[in-house]
């Protein structure tokens, strides 16, 4: 057989087909009455192709829409700091030094749409799916270690305030600062967000955090409060607003590109997972509640204790199938890990999985990127896009319920004592007592380097100068409560900016006006056609 024949044979093996497996011999022309005539309805290949194309997109995530992902592994140290990890948790993936667990990670921005810029001033999502021997564990968090709110009831309002105006569909800072000004607990996060920490240089050089307080449970059912922190071995790098704007001028996907190309060239990014551990009680000696996600746990009292490392070494084969359809949930925990009473965590636990059922479908956990590596045995069935049935060879396929005497699934044996926290309180609607909303924001401001403070003040002034005066005053009041210098510098900066605006007769966002003016002035006239 000559080379041409070989080539033809190979091409036939890889010949184009439709979803039914039918070979497609003409993918260029629809079937018509004559070469200029109308198309006929029996164009099955065209109808299948175009109807699938019409449905290629699934609903965009309301938050975390823009993302990038990669595969890798987590390697346990077998210890937490210098102590055996079994002292605190019976979770199997942590127990043995050198034990590796496959992972998939999705990094993301939060507020922007799917095609928004990755230089946006925005928290970054940091979600890790561990495919453990006991099923999946999702550690869903952000790059910053705190959050804007502590009560999940406020979450929809917070996101609405950060999104484009519902009338103009334009981004404007007034909604965000209106929300901040009436939510004192958000001042700490707002301080981080408007500093260079609000724009990580890329995904490889940013921290990650579980944000919420969780629990670890040992074999005796004893629990401790914990926080998870990912520390990048590549170092931490952030961008000023001016640096971010230079990048955005030529590339709105620089972080996705950076991650993909680093892994392709074998420069595998790595993070160390560190734990903060606290006894499971109210800790009255602290001036904040340890369950409050707007607060940092002081490292001098609760040091970072290394427990393992994560390496990312493989890019996805298909972005949509693996990154866009990847689904995470804060309720996805394995034995030895548990929830705390953090209100925000409990609200997220319903919302995260519920949004995946709406966005991807009721069987989203059957998709390869979301499915556990262990055998799944449930009595759940049916629903859109069911393509596997959860029964094992040894079970009776006629029985899809439990309990049963007829060979269906049985309950698993416990591998340790249950953790049974005790409650004796009234059912109330109240905020936590130790809110202390301004102290840590002031400490964070004072801990910033001078260039970070300068960028923070500049960013706040540029955003606040187009907001209503009542919002400006309320925000200055919050910043002053956090730190006198902090509030004074924002007030002085705003006064100077407002004078300049009066001289220029600017009434809306200066940067937006500048862009509109440039587009008009720099455009080229053209004749109608």
TrEMBL record:
Residues 1-36, 498-529 are annotated as: Disordered. Heme binds at residue 352. GO terms for biological process: hydrogen peroxide catabolic process; response to hydrogen peroxide. It catalyses: 2 H2O2 = O2 + 2 H2O. The keyword Iron applies. It comes from the Bacteria. Residues 17-410 form the Catalase core domain. Residues 511-529 have a biased composition (Basic and acidic residues). The active site is at residues 64, 142. Pfam families: Catalase, Catalase-rel. Its EC number is 1.11.1.6. Its cofactor is heme. Keywords: Heme, Hydrogen peroxide, Iron, Metal-binding, Oxidoreductase, Peroxidase. GO terms for molecular function: catalase activity; heme binding; metal ion binding. GO terms for cellular component: cytoplasm. InterPro entries: Catalase, Catalase_AS, Catalase_clade1/3, Catalase_core, Catalase_haem_BS, Catalase_immune_responsive, Catalase_sf. It is an enzyme of class 1 (oxidoreductase). Decomposes hydrogen peroxide into water and oxygen; serves to protect cells from the toxic effects of hydrogen peroxide. Belongs to the catalase family. This is Catalase. It comes from Pradoshia eiseniae.
